[in-house]
Amino acid sequence: MTDTPDAPDTAAPDVRPGEKLAAMRAAAPLVQNITNYVAMNVMANALLAAGASPAMVHAREESADFAAIASALTINIGTLSPEWVASMEAAAASATAHGKPWVLDPVAVFATAYRAEVGAQLAGLNPSLIRGNASEILALSGAAAGGKGADAGDAVATAEAGARALSARTGGIVAVTGPVDYVTDGTRGYRIANGHPLMPKVTALGCSLTGICGAFLAAGETPLEDIAAALAFYGLAGERAAQGAGGPGSFAVAFIDELAAVTPEDLAAGARITPA
Ligand SMILES: Nc1ncnc2c1ncn2[C@@H]1O[C@H](COP(=O)(O)OP(=O)(O)OP(=O)(O)O)[C@@H](O)[C@H]1O
Ligand SMILES: Cc1ncsc1CCO
Ligand SMILES: [Mg+2]
């Protein structure tokens, strides 16, 4: 037996999500985010509440320099423009060159030819993790997708094979989020059954999760398990926030509170992670 926060007899004993949350908070990693205008504020607040240190830095003149000093980088294509794409590519190359993990969030990559082109280009730059909803991961893997703008229109289960193929192609981890999340390194995988239906009713909670994933990668040593832990942590905060929430507005406020309130012990007890 052990007195660490994680019971040894969970369905996925290797993940030890409570320990990973504690490690992330102890490191309080600096996470650089090149994200969309919608997400900037909520994502920064989510990272602060969880225990990380966010910086929204996107100018072409400094994005690569900042990636060299940050502990992780995240890139989100939600509100694209050509100047930002140059900045994203430079930052991703810098992160890779400096051995820093970086995460791609391919928002609505299925919606236009420009998004598809930029998404594929960025996916080719060795992201440590791609995190998207089912429609985004399906599209990036080369399959047909039924999303509506930033919202998913496909079930997570339909994107699992595409996620494994995409992971094999990029050499990184791929996570598909929705009612039950799925994460894979192309061979092994986990399903994470935490979360609440109010989460997709608040904008940019997926974008913010991408930042949390960056923070867990920065502090972790086993990327597949780091992301399984990050997904369980985020979903558990959503479950707890929904208790007593009157709707999406009060839920959003309570969710930020819960990202700060969930302890490693809470996560060890509440994570619903199974090998897949
Ligand atoms: N129906 C649902 N039930 C429970 N949890 C959900 C549900 N839908 C999404 N989630 C959770 O919401 C979080 C965000 O995932 P989601 O798939 O909605 O991201 P997204 O589509 O990229 O969001 P956005 O682009 O609007 O920021 C994840 O933690 C996921 O598990
Ligand atoms: C609503 C929206 N539009 C572009 S990015 C974004 C945030 C959710 O992805
Ligand atoms: Mg999204």
From TrEMBL:
The keyword Repeat does not apply. Pathway: Cofactor biosynthesis; thiamine diphosphate biosynthesis; 4-methyl-5-(2-phosphoethyl)-thiazole from 5-(2-hydroxyethyl)-4-methylthiazole: step 1/1. Its EC number is 2.7.1.50. It catalyses: 5-(2-hydroxyethyl)-4-methylthiazole + ATP = 4-methyl-5-(2-phosphooxyethyl)-thiazole + ADP + H(+). SUPFAM superfamilies: Ribokinase-like. Keywords: ATP-binding, Kinase, Magnesium, Metal-binding, Nucleotide-binding, Thiamine biosynthesis, Transferase. It holds the Pfam family HK. Its cofactor is Mg(2+). Gene3D superfamilies: 3.40.1190.20. It is an enzyme of class 2 (transferase). Belongs to the Thz kinase family. Catalyzes the phosphorylation of the hydroxyl group of 4-methyl-5-beta-hydroxyethylthiazole (THZ). This is Hydroxyethylthiazole kinase. The gene is thiM.
